[in-house]
Design brief:
Radius of gyration: 27 Å
Number of strands: 7
Helix content: 25-40%
Shape: elongated
Strand order of the largest sheet: 1-2-3-4-5-6-7
Low-confidence stretches: none
Distance between the termini: 81 Å
Largest sheet: 7 strands, antiparallel
Number of domains: 1
């Protein structure tokens, strides 16, 4: 009787938990699955960020057109996001509402707006007038690949040959027409 009790105790102890080889196989399967799925998930996120940036540039171009109609010129994107144009006294105005960034666009100290994996900066002509806006990924390869430009006067969005990311900004000048390809409207 003592032998069967000891045998039962040993066999029940052996069945508790997983063995080290089983745990290593489980970890290897999880690692390989994550290595296969993570790039696919990141690709979807990059595509979503790029689509959002293009849509945002189109909205900004429309808002800038309203601002220009009331004020006579385009404005920096921070002014566009945070204020309403004040018409000249005595003139008719539709009281254009501010561009409603939701969630709010975050601006840094040099006038660059941050939103949805992309950075936005007004582009200027040689005389310093605002003529469009750049959009480029915060972290190239992770939050997006493409750098975009919108021309406020034509409201057209272009994909550019500029390769920009967190530190490598496209600058504040409007791009030359060379290297621009029109982004199709949705």
């Amino acid at each position: 009787m003592m032998v069967s009790f000891t045998k039962t105790l040993v066999s029940s102890r052996a069945r508790v938990g997983f063995t080290l080889p089983e745990l290593l196989v489980f970890i290897a399967v999880l690692t390989s699955a994550s290595m296969w799925l993570l790039p696919k998930a990141l690709q979807a996120r990059k595509n979503q960020n790029e689509a959002h940036a293009v849509a945002y540039l189109r909205m900004m171009a429309s808002a800038e057109q309203l601002w220009k109609r009331e004020q006579g010129s385009f404005v920096e994107i921070r002014s566009l996001a945070e204020s309403v144009p004040n018409p000249a006294s005595g003139s008719f105005s539709l009281r254009t509402p501010p561009f409603d960034f939701r969630p709010k666009m975050i601006f840094d100290g040099v006038g660059i707006g941050h939103r949805a994996g992309y950075r936005f900066r007004a582009g200027h002509d040689q005389d310093g007038r605002v003529v469009g806006c750049w959009a480029w990924p915060n972290l190239r390869e992770y939050s997006g690949l493409q750098t975009y430009w919108v021309d406020f006067s034509t409201q057209q969005v272009f994909a550019t040959a500029v390769s920009a990311s967190w530190v490598d900004t496209p600058g504040s000048l409007a791009p030359e027409d060379v290297g621009l390809s029109l982004v199709a409207a949705d």
